[in-house]
Amino acid sequence: MVPGPNNAGDSASVQVETHHEDMIHDAQLDFHGKRLATASSDRTVKVFDVTPNGQYALVDTLRGHDGPVWQIAWAHPKFGGILASASYDGKVFVWRESPAPSQPAQSAQGYGYQAGPYGHQAQAGLGSWSKIKEHTLHNASVNSISWAPHELGPILACASSDGKVSVLTFNNDGTWDASLFVAHLIGCNAVSWAPATMPGSLIQPQSAALAPQAQNGQAGPGGVSSVRRFASGGCDGFVKIWGWRDDTKTWAEEEVLEGHTDWVRDVAWAPNIGMPKSYLASAGQDKQVFIHIQDRPGAPWTRTQLDPSTAAGATSTIPGQFADVVWRVSWSIAGQVLAVSGGDGVVTLWKESLKGSWECVSDVKA
């Protein structure tokens, strides 16, 4: 089920008949909520158009993977109709939507895409989809993919069971750069980018930035410093934070966050518009969810554990543990609400109280 409008203006669940022939592993709406993509064990990705009356019409079925497709990710619309898919076959495909003949392509200003092999239209039309990149550097299942904040450009991070993370950077001239490094020795399950805006930049002068990563940032809109960072979660039970170093042109390990006693299944960095605090959520095979918090750049990370046993109608009676494995965590656009999805088919929504504790404010049962 996916979100959909209802007559009262509230959020509602809409059931979509995808016609996949096997289990669905991921479903993602694009930036504007006008397109839905689904990934399945049947080795395909399906793209649906959201009609004005809230219905979902199949646009295309993308084929080519040789194994289950675990995850999909939409690029920002400034880069055109671009979709990435990650599969058990160890490959990452990048797909582009070509505009319909009746809809001339618009160039995405500042990126030179009209001459390159990807994203040449600033607004997706109702054309056909084609594969424009096949990333094959990994030698095991690719479990997670994540596009960087659009301010940093078209950059895609990929996490694999081979223990490595790869970062694909798409250049103006149509070439592709790829960096590959070991992140978690026994496997990497998840990756999530930090906001591009330096924490605290909204309320303090740039000269007061304390974080070491600020030295490796770049000027963003309005002169606000931006930063390249992402988090990864692995089979070693650790969450690691990686930052780009301009001096060595490499990704360096900045932090190792502990707490989980089993595989980290997902990580999610909360959106931030420049406020001092950073929030990073992690979900584990150990049925636990942690919120890792950094009060200001350069400060040590602390963690707090969600306690589903205190929620109304709780299905778990063990403090700090959900009823089943927690597979996904996802933040709202404003970064104030965290959605937690477990193997028991229940999605719970969590919010931080004025006292700093985290409370379950709602739940949705599949």
UniProtKB/TrEMBL annotation:
It is found in: Cytoplasmic vesicle, COPII-coated vesicle membrane; Endoplasmic reticulum membrane; Nucleus, Nuclear pore complex. PROSITE patterns: WD_REPEATS_2, WD_REPEATS_REGION. One of its GO terms (molecular function) is structural molecule activity. GO terms for cellular component: COPII vesicle coat; endoplasmic reticulum membrane; nuclear pore outer ring. Keywords: Cytoplasmic vesicle, Endoplasmic reticulum, ER-Golgi transport, Membrane, mRNA transport, Nuclear pore complex, Nucleus, Protein transport, Repeat, Translocation, Transport, WD repeat. It is a peripheral membrane protein. GO terms for biological process: COPII-coated vesicle budding; mRNA transport; positive regulation of TOR signaling; protein exit from endoplasmic reticulum; protein import into nucleus. The keyword DNA-binding does not apply. The keyword Protein transport applies. WD repeats lie at residues 17-50, 62-95. InterPro entries: Sec13/Seh1_fam (IPR037363), WD40/YVTN_repeat-like_dom_sf (IPR015943), WD40_repeat_dom_sf (IPR036322), WD40_rpt (IPR001680). Component of the coat protein complex II (COPII) which promotes the formation of transport vesicles from the endoplasmic reticulum (ER). The coat has two main functions, the physical deformation of the endoplasmic reticulum membrane into vesicles and the selection of cargo molecules. It also functions as a component of the nuclear pore complex (NPC). NPC components, collectively referred to as nucleoporins (NUPs), can play the role of both NPC structural components and of docking or interaction partners for transiently associated nuclear transport factors. Belongs to the WD repeat SEC13 family. This is Uncharacterized protein.
